[in-house]
Design goal:
alpha/beta; FAD/NAD(P)-binding domain; seven-stranded mixed sheet; five-stranded parallel sheet
């Protein structure tokens, strides 16, 4: 039965949910508090520069491609995707390592750092490929309503090969002894939200999804993916309303009946909340919330981060499109994020310089530079601290590249940190990446996709299944739309005509 469905938020999960829900003939309306779609993956233009605000690593391209295939398209119908070579450069205290696009070349890099490690890399990646195929094919598409979803013969037979109960650090150490190689294999875990000792070795599948499948870049910037998904959702019939703030989710008995949007009551048959899960729950009466405040306080969150968007009136030699500055110990920075919850004493950071690949994102002979330093969520965020760490990051870039006085060549600068994540995205404690993928927060142990008290409200996004990241968020939206489509019993039909006739959208 056709339903009128509201989607709250237009990040990747909201765009995905809108497209899939509209594809099956539903009347879908997406409400976004900000002026553009994309959520954390927004962008902005200033002084001739185009900056992606959030994601810049285009990994797991097959998952993203499958989204477009579900609607009869390919990504190339919307943007040009280029494969980066080198994929990125890792800068350590004693040397730097470029990660090539070719697997055979990657194998040679490993061999140059540790004899016989090429064979170990083959073994690691064979196992990672298996985990990737099982994980992305059988695990992540489950709504995680109950444990029975994981009791299929295929999943049960694979369970012991997925290394769910082995921690990531011990697993990597079985293959590699060289500290640079160990750091290289562990770095993706930072963005899963916990130290390698607390992340299941299952997530070695990320190494396969990145290093083997490759690191890509959409010409024009990562926001091209947002634009493509927005366009595709509209092609399915979804309608988008920007600068529309959802102020209240209104209910009757055990159903959502309407949303209060920009002061007006709009009635719907079902709601998909792609907005921050914790924030969404504050829009409900306490009796209708899945979780109390102490639940969220007890969760392990992935990091927030300090971001700097910088434009330079000169080219910066020696930087790749992606560069990881890991001259300091990984564990020290992780301790500041997850234990002491303080600004890092010896930080690691990431630099993205898309103007090395794309001449459309900066004026001619200028450079576009995005800097990211992971931080503990909820940390004290002050302008003076942002400036302090900018100077440190620029100093380390200068030391690595041989450049001097970079700060004097900045002709555009803007920072973004914990307070901004809270203000713009209602992000709990200013988190940037959602919940950590610890074993205790995996699959059915994540916040429930379904509201347990309201039959026609489901959640999507990085705080529910399958987890943080662009591909998982896209999958989350698909699952949420599927769950709403399964619901056959809805409250009385409501009338949206009056709202639309007022032409305030």
């Amino acid at each position: 039965m056709k339903k009128r469905i509201a989607v709250i938020g237009s990040g990747f999960s909201g765009l995905s949910a809108a497209a899939y829900a509209a594809q099956t003939g539903n009347d879908v309306h997406v409400f976004e508090k900000n002026s553009i779609p994309g959520g954390r993956a927004g962008n902005f233009k200033a002084s001739g520069y185009t900056f992606d605000k959030g994601p810049s690593w285009y990994w797991m391209p097959d998952v993203i491609e499958n989204f477009f295939k579900d609607f009869g398209y390919t990504s190339s119908d919307f943007f040009k995707l280029v494969k980066l070579d080198p994929q990125f450069e890792l800068v350590t205290q004693n040397l730097s390592v470029k990660i090539p696009e070719s697997y055979s070349d990657l194998r040679a890099v490993f061999e140059s750092l540790e004899p016989e490690s090429g064979k170990k890399l083959d073994e690691f990646m064979r196992a990672a490929k298996f985990k990737y195929e099982i994980g992305m094919g059988s695990f992540v598409n489950k709504p995680c309503n109950h444990i029975g979803e994981f009791l299929s013969p295929k999943i049960i037979s694979a369970a012991f090969s997925l290394d769910l109960f082995t921690n990531f650090r011990k697993y990597v150490a079985k293959f590699f002894k060289n500290p640079v190689l160990k750091t290289l294999m562990e770095f993706p875990i930072i963005f899963l939200g916990a130290s390698p000792e607390k992340i299941p070795a299952l997530y070695s599948m990320m190494n396969y999804g990145g290093f083997v499948l490759g690191t890509h870049y959409p010409l024009g910037g990562f926001y091209e993916l947002v634009k493509a998904m927005h366009s595709l959702a509209e092609k399915q019939g979804a309608k988008f309303y920007f600068n529309h703030l959802v102020e209240k989710i209104q209910t009757n008995d055990n159903y959502v009946t309407s949303l209060l949007v920009n002061g007006k009551t709009l009635e719907f048959d079902a709601v998909i909340a792609s907005s921050d899960y914790h924030h969404t729950e504050t829009l409900l009466n306490k009796t209708h919330r899945n979780y109390k405040e102490d639940y969220w306080e007890s969760r392990t969150f992935a990091p927030s981060c300090l971001l700097w968007y910088l434009g330079f009136n000169k080219k910066i030699k020696g930087l790749q499109h992606h560069t990881l500055f890991f001259e300091n110990e990984l564990d020290g920075h992780l301790k500041n994020i997850y234990e002491t919850k303080t600004w890092p004493e010896k930080p690691l950071f990431y630099a993205c310089c898309p103007s090395k690949t794309d001449n459309t994102v900066a004026p001619e002979n200028h450079e576009n530079l995005f800097l990211l330093m992971p931080l503990s969520p909820g940390i004290n965020d002050e302008e003076a601290l942002r400036e302090k760490y900018l100077k440190e990051m620029l100093n380390r870039i200068e030391k690595f590249t041989g450049e001097t006085d970079l700060e004097k060549n900045i002709d555009f600068r803007r920072s973004y940190c914990v307070n901004d994540f809270i203000e713009e995205y209602n992000a709990y404690k200013g988190n940037a990446y959602g919940l950590a993928n610890t074993l205790q927060q995996t699959a059915i142990l994540k916040p429930s996709l379904h509201n347990k008290k309201l039959r026609n409200l489901v959640y999507a996004g990085q705080l529910t299944i399958p987890g943080p990241g662009v591909p998982p968020s896209i999958i989350s939206g698909k699952i949420a739309a599927g769950e709403i489509n399964k619901k056959t019993h809805t409250p009385e039909r409501y009338n949206l005509k009056n709202y639309l006739n007022e032409k305030i959208v």
